[in-house]
Amino acid sequence: MDLPPELAAKRDRLLAILGELPGVAVAFSGGIDSTLVAKAAYLALGGKAVAVTADSPSVPRAELATARELAALIGVRHVVVPTHEFDNPDYLKNGGDRCYFCKSELYTQVERLLPGLGVPVVASGANLDDGGDYRPGLTAAAEHAVRHPLQEAGFTKADVRAVARHWGLPTWDKPAAPCLSSRLAPGLAVTPERTRRVEEAEAYLRSLGLRECRVRYHEGDLARVEVPAGEVARLAADPARGDLAREFRRLGFKFVTLDLDGFRSGSLNDLVPLELRTKFRKEPHDKNDQGTIKNTK
């Protein structure tokens, strides 16, 4: 199926932007956005494109395996680099700006690889819909001169999915999969044990057929389970309710709650202090704005 003319023009613009680079390392999580950039970079640059995936206790093993499979499918050169955000006390304390320290570590590690990879530019998968008021990760990207080709080419999330489907990428409709540390409520210290519990708890929910789900980890080892609103009644009824409670307690949670509002991406951001929301804020887009980040610290 051919793309609509406007979307085909965005696709061509994306390829042209990447093709003008002398080489690029794509920060590649295996999510749909970075997968599209990796695919486009490979089409535009061939061997001068590299996909770089971070590995740490905040990355689910299933996501790392998916990243490897997708890179092989695309044909792009792929490097997995250990990142050490868990060595940073500012990251571990989870004060609401955790993502800033995580992305700073990622881009620092990728920059160190550039000479050996033979490429000079780092690119992300940020698109125009990643323009919320609270974007500490994009602030880190700005400080490291990271390019955002999808934003530069005018891609929204819907555009990303449409072009990914057009190119035959199997994850074109994959739900977002933020890092495991993002499930911990601000102020609750990040530990490998807590991220492991979240990973296993969400794997259990997916085994029940849930594609979109989150296990939010709150003080007191409380798990707040978010699933689509239409699935709440099923999980609240026996036998699913009892099975879920037993499994989560086996994993180490002391309390298990089911959020009646259903799945809401980024719901823990409601707990981020106002001063941090204004410190890392996104300037509004206009037709000439390709994603400028303002750090007001």
Detailed description of the structure:
- With about 300 residues, this protein is an alpha/beta fold.
- The chain has 2 domains: about 5-175, Rossmann fold; about 180-265, Alpha-Beta Plaits.
- It is about 45% helix and about 15% strand.
- The protein contains 12 helices and 9 strands.
- Strands 3-2-1-4 form a 4-stranded parallel sheet, with helices on both faces. A 3-stranded mixed sheet has the order 5-6-7. A two-stranded antiparallel ribbon has the order 8-9.
- Helix 3 links the parallel strand 2 (about 50-55) and strand 3.
- Helix 2 crosses helix 8 (about 155-165).
- About 40% of the residues are buried.
Topology:
Layout: H1 5-19, E1 24-27, H2 32-45, E2 49-55, H3 61-74, E3 77-82, H4 89-92, H5 98-117, E4 121-123, H6 136-143, H7 149-152, H8 157-166, H9 192-207, E5 214-218, E6 222-226, H10 232-236, H11 240-251, E7 255-258, H12 274-279, E8 280-282, E9 293-295
Parallel strand pairs: 1-2, 1-4, 2-3, 6-7
Antiparallel strand pairs: 5-6, 8-9
General shape: globular
Number of domains: 2
Radius of gyration: 19 Å
Beta-strand residue fraction: 5-15%
Q: What structural class do you assign from the helix and strand content? A: alpha/beta
The level 1 CATH classification of the largest domain is Alpha Beta
* Approximate helicity band: 40-55%
Provide the residue-averaged pLDDT.
91
Q: Count helical runs.
A: 12
Order of helices and strands: HEHEHEHHEHHHHEEHHEHEE
